[in-house]
Structure formats: C-alpha cells, structure tokens
Amino acid sequence: MATVQLKAVEKTFGSIQVIKGVDFTIESGEFVVFVGPSGCGKSTLLRMIAGLESTSSGHIFIDHQDVTQVEAAERGIAMVFQTYALYPHMTVRENMGFGLKMTGTPKAEIAARTLKAAKILALEPLLERKPKQLSGGQRQRVAIGRAIVREPKVFLFDEPLSNLDAELRVAMRVEIAKLHHELGATMIYVTHDQVEAMTLADKIVVLRSGKVEQVGSPLDLYDDPDNLFVAGFIGSPS
Ligand code: ADP
Ligand code: MG
C-alpha cells in the first residue's frame, strides 16, 4: 500500500500542453477513478505516475518519496492496459510469471506468486492453457494476474474492461472490487463508464482538458458538483 501525490504536474508534447498543473493526493489503499472526456489526459497522467512518460514539470511522490526521476521498474507500480497483449506462445502460467523471470526472481518464488494470483482470480484451472484457448474475460484476468504477481504498491488500470461486452464488464467490475478488497492495495482506475466509476471509486478525479475539475467521493460529486461539466459527467440532475 502506498500514497500517491501529484504536485503541479505538467506535460507538454512538442508545443502542446496536455497536462496543466495537476495536484491531488491519493491515500494508501484508496480506489481512485479518473474520469473525463476522450483526450483530456487520463492515460498520459497514468503513464506519468507509472514512469512510462516523463514529467515536463512538477513532482510525483509515492509514499512521500519523490519518484519524478525514478525509472518505471523502480517505482513499485504495475499497470493493466485496455489491450492486454499476452504472449500467444506461452501458457497462462508463463505469461503471468514472465515479468518476474525477467527481473531474475527465483523459480520457486515465481511459482508461488503465480499460484497465489491464480487463486485470487480463479485462474487455477486455466494455468496450462494458451491465450487463444481463453475467453476475453479470462484473458483480461490473466493481464490483471500479471500485475498481481509483481506485488506492486500501486495498481494502475487504463480502461481495462473497454474491450469486453456489457455482461462481462459487469462481472469483471465485481471481480475488480473484490480484488481491491482482498489486496487492500492503492488502485488508480481510468474509465469512461460512469456506473463503473460510481460503484468502484472511493474517490473520483474529474479531468477536463488536462486539468482537475473536481475531486471527491462519488456521493460528493453526485450531490454537490462544482459545475455543470462535473454534473454532466457524473450523471446527477443538477
Ligand atoms: P485520454 O486517455 O484522456 O483519452 P490521453 O492522455 O491519451 O487522453 O491524451 C491526452 C492528449 O495528449 C491528447 O490530445 C493526445 O492526442 C495527446 N497525446 C497523448 N500522447 C501523445 C504523444 N505521445 N505525443 C503527442 N501527443 C500525445
Ligand atoms: Mg486513454
């Protein structure tokens, strides 16, 4: 578990500023959801927190340590993407353990952590299958499993359910809530699905054109939106 803090974070691509002075604090173990229109900078922010994208100015802190210049692999963060490219020639077990293998983790440790993650995600019976023998939902669970085995301090999810059909999304949403409950880890989750945001979040960060529009609990934002933009996004009638 870890706190995540952003202070005056900015990002410029060429001459275009896409993140404009973002500040917020995420408490240890919190489930925080980023919402906002396409292109408002949700993915860029996640990638900056993960260390996959540099920060043009400002600072990012994880557990009160300034990680702005720290490499991605050293930040203790795992990210789950919308397109969860699994290695087609590897089994579920191998896909889940591959990242650990690359960092030189001992085989017994990899086996133990893979089994633990498989149990959490109900993937135990599927460990010897190849990705093409799995459904979309099962593949996405493997992608989440890959993140769990790394035992990160913070999980980042970038629209992880967008490629799934409606029924499966609801089922996976429940699984993600369960996962948060079981691991107690800090999680930051991007979605454009308002129901997903309202049901999963302890706290929602509403973004618009690279700026934070409002931060609050789902109920706060619903009952007391700062403006029409937030109201429109959260779906309250005011
Ligand atoms: P979101 O995830 O909210 O849809 P993004 O973070 O992907 O938004 O993008 C925010 C803005 O930054 C968009 O205008 C996008 O075109 C731009 N952008 C993202 N990545 C790059 C990049 N590597 N180079 C140039 N512009 C980028
Ligand atoms: Mg995005």
Automatic annotation (TrEMBL):
Q: Which species expresses this protein natively?
A: Thiothrix eikelboomii
The alphabetical list of record keywords is: ATP-binding, Cell inner membrane, Cell membrane, Membrane, Nucleotide-binding, Sugar transport, Transport
The answer to whether UniProt assigns keyword Cell inner membrane to this entry is yes
Keyword flag ATP-binding = yes
The protein's name is Lactose/L-arabinose transport system ATP-binding protein
One GO molecular function term? ATP binding
Please, which domain of life does this record's source organism belong to?
Answer: Bacteria
What's in the GO CC field?
ATP-binding cassette (ABC) transporter complex, substrate-binding subunit-containing; maltose transport complex
**Which ranges carry the ABC transporter domain?**
4-234
Tell me the part of the parent protein that is shown.
Answer: 1 to 238 of 359
